[in-house]
């Protein structure tokens, strides 16, 4: 526990990304308090710590019955800023279920808006209004807490070192999610989210991570309330407007609008809507049977003019006149006491009358048109994404909703694939996120369209890894894998792609495949697989045995000893081991070896150029350093060039048809 003079800390109440809250006792007054201690990484320098303390002192001057006050501001024994406040033991708003309790919802909103009006009038914007920051005291009075990231107007928008806007994205307005400067209207947006949450019992937007949640606040349409809460919709629409200019201008205006929200209740329209939904759920066969039963009843009634069956019979001239004037194809019948009821004009009406039209139908027709016009997520107000969501909210049971949602997901998947192919990862990620969010919000997360999106994404990323592997570019391959991770590829697919990417060698690392040990040499536009060391006596002996090639004439440079003591690669005039670099081989021998090895391995080997040779890794050919043949020549190519210094001296030009006791070779192949 931190050491704070004048306090005794007992336990941790909660922890977040910027601070830890402890339960403690203020020794001088013997009262229970909550103490918020900032984390070392939250305020990394003295300037930011002093600014925090100044802001805390400003907030401490707020005196309002619905704002949790600040008792004390100071620093711990370790130098970390803290402030103490009353301990609210009755929990926070997120722990309460207020569905169906509109009077309580109104009272809480009024208290919060009045508290914000007080703070805003003093230049303080809370910037983190959320359910967990609405606490309840012993009298069950709501109080707004944690102005810990509040700013006075003029300081601008503070962001973390990771670049993410401070605050809780579930309640965060679009401008704050983008890291733009915010004003009091940001708090009013958050209150709108709270209003929705209290009324419905869940957040207006739901996503698996903070970034996806922020994106939904920025671009998704404002959701529709359930029918029994529709009298709140105008209030919600203005509170959650994407643009601050379209929201309530201040807390006072929002309070006035809250007072005008009608008291909820179920009227005839609501009952009719529910009846319509129940009728749409009746199977077609049941409609047919019902129609036949009605028709049979009418037929029986037409044969019996007396008694109770007269209820089913249209009677006399009055009925005929009523039928002639009825505008909906129905007819009125008398029942003897002068009362009138509506009956079917004919038995066929029960069969021909259409089932009630779903509220989703208009949105689905619009979505189909927008899909044809490729208006998937834009422009605002005329795109398939908004239309499908509105259709789902209007009638999630409509038979065409799932298919239309899948069609849009598939279209977004195709866009993402094309965007990945042209390297526009940001656009591809946006398409994938939109498709994933749409699937989540329309219960299509297990549908074939989203599975197809994931497979398209995996194949596109896999293709990019293959392309990078062909170019021996591990960096590009790992970047492709990271793109797949950001696009939500599952862990198994990512692990397989990551393994493939990390197998791509870096310059100087071994290249797999073939019987010759080669490493990657890459610089600028040059990319080669080069032998790590010169061809050994053992390797050349295998070649000579397989081809029956005769040893080349060999000599020391500037010496005639070959006449007295002939030398070959087997007997160069000094002792060598099997792994030492072969010498006394001619340039022609080296070229022949390259052809033989290439045929054996199914690859194309060659000698390096002199400029390529300078980029090859240093070779250890044994106890004696050797020069190496390369492909260059001088004059009319009767002389060939060697690279590197040998134990006898520097490189130079040599006759290509003979060997030298200080010259070997190694091979490369183009990648």
What does the model show?
The structure is a single chain. The protein is an alpha+beta fold and 671 residues long. It has 4 domains: 80 residues, 2-Layer Sandwich (Phosphorylase Kinase, domain 1); 168 residues, Transferase(Phosphotransferase), domain 1 (Orthogonal Bundle), CATH 1.10.510.10; 142 residues, no CATH class; 153 residues, Alpha-Beta Complex (paralog of FGE (formylglycine-generating enzyme)), CATH 3.90.1580. Helix content is 41%, strand content 14%. The chain is built from 22 helices and 21 strands. A 5-stranded antiparallel beta sheet has the order 1-2-3-5-4, with helices on one face. Strands 12-13-14-21 form a 4-stranded antiparallel beta sheet, with no helix packed on it. Helix 16 packs antiparallel against helix 17. The longest helix has 23 residues. It starts with 6 loop residues before the first strand and ends with a strand. About 14% of the residues have low confidence.
Give the helices and strands, then pairings.
Blueprint: E1 7-15, E2 19-26, E3 31-38, H1 46-60, E4 72-75, E5 81-86, H2 102-121, E6 124-125, E7 134-136, E8 142-144, E9 151-152, H3 174-177, H4 184-200, H5 210-219, H6 233-239, H7 251-260, H8 268-280, H9 284-302, H10 316-325, E10 330-334, E11 340-344, H11 349-352, H12 361-372, H13 384-394, H14 401-421, H15 425-441, H16 448-470, H17 474-486, H18 491-502, E12 510-511, E13 518-523, E14 526-531, H19 537-547, E15 554-555, H20 561-564, H21 587-601, H22 610-613, E16 627-634, E17 639-643, E18 653-655, E19 659-660, E20 663-664, E21 668-670
Parallel strand pairs: 15-19, 16-20
Antiparallel strand pairs: 1-2, 2-3, 3-5, 4-5, 6-9, 7-8, 10-11, 12-13, 13-14, 14-21, 16-17, 17-18
């Amino acid at each position: 526990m931190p050491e704070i003079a004048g306090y005794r800390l007992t336990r941790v109440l909660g922890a977040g990304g910027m601070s830890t809250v402890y339960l403690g006792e203020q020794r001088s007054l013997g009262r229970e308090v909550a103490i918020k201690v900032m984390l070392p990484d939250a305020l990394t320098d003295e300037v930011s710590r002093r600014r925090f303390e100044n802001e805390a002192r400003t907030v401490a001057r707020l005196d309002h019955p619905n704002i949790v006050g600040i008792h004390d501001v100071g620093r711990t024994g370790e130098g970390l800023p803290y402030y103490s406040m009353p301990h609210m033991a009755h929990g926070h708003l997120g722990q309460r279920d207020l569905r169906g309790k509109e009077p309580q919802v109104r009272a809480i909103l009024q208290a919060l808006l009045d508290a914000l009006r007080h703070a805003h009038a003093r230049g303080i914007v809370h910037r983190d209004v959320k359910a967990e920051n609405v606490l309840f005291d012993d009298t069950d009075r709501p109080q707004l807490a944690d102005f810990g990231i509040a700013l006075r107007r003029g300081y601008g928008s503070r962001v973390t070192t990771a670049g993410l806007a401070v605050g809780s994205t579930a309640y965060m307005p679009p401008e704050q999610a983008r890291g733009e400067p915010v004003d009091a209207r940001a708090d009013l947006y958050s209150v709108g989210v709270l209003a929705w949450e209290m009324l419905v019992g869940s957040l207006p937007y739901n996503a698996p991570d903070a970034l996806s949640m922020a994106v939904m606040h920025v671009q998704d349409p404002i959701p529709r309330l359930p029918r029994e809460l529709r009298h709140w919709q105008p209030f919600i629409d203005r509170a959650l407007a994407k643009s601050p200019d379209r929201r309530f201008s201040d807390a006072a205006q929002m309070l006035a609008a809250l007072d005008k929200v009608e008291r909820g209740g179920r009227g005839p329209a609501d009952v009719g809507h529910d009846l319509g939904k129940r009728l749409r759920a009746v199977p077609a066969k049941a409609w047919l049977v019902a129609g036949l039963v009605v028709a049979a009843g009418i037929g029986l009634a037409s044969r019996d003019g007396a008694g109770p069956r007269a209820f089913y019979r249209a009677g006399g001239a009055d009925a005929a006149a009523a039928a002639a004037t009825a505008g909906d194809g129905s007819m009125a019948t008398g029942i003897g006491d002068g009362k009138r009821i509506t009956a079917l004009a004919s038995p066929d009406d029960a069969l021909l009358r259409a089932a009630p039209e779903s509220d989703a139908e208009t949105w689905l027709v619009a979505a189909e048109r927008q899909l044809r016009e490729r208006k998937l997520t834009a422009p605002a107000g005329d795109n398939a994404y908004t239309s499908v969501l509105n259709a789902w909210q209007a009638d999630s049971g409509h038979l065409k909703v799932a298919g239309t949602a899948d069609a849009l997901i598939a279209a977004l998947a195709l866009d993402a694939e094309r965007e990945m192919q042209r390297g526009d990862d940001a656009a591809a990620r946006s398409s994938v996120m939109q498709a994933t969010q749409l699937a989540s919000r329309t219960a299509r997360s297990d549908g074939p369209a989203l599975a197809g999106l994931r497979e398209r994404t995996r194949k596109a990323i896999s293709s990019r890894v293959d392309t990078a592997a062909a170019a021996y570019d591990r960096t590009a391959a790992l970047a492709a894998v990271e793109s797949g991770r950001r696009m939500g590829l599952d862990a198994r697919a990512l692990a397989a792609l990551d393994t493939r990417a990390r197998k791509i060698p870096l310059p100087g690392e071994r290249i797999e495949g073939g019987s010759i040990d080669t490493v990657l040499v890459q610089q600028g536009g040059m990319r080669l697989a080069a032998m790590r060391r010169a061809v050994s006596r053992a390797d050349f002996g295998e070649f000579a045995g397989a081809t029956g090639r005769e040893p080349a004439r060999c000599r020391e440079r500037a010496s005639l000893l070959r006449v007295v003591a002939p030398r070959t690669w087997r007997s160069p005039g000094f002792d060598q081991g099997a792994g030492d670099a072969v010498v006394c081989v001619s340039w022609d021998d080296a070229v022949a070896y390259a052809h033989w090895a290439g045929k054996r391995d199914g690859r194309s080997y060659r000698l390096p150029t002199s400029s390529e040779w300078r980029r090859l890794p240093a070779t250890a050919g044994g106890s004696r350093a050797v020069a190496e043949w390369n492909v260059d020549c001088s004059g009319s190519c009767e002389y060939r060039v060697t690279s590197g210094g040998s134990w006898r001296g520097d490189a130079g030009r040599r006759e290509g048809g003979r060997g030298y006791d200080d010259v070997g070779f190694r091979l490369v192949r183009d990648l």
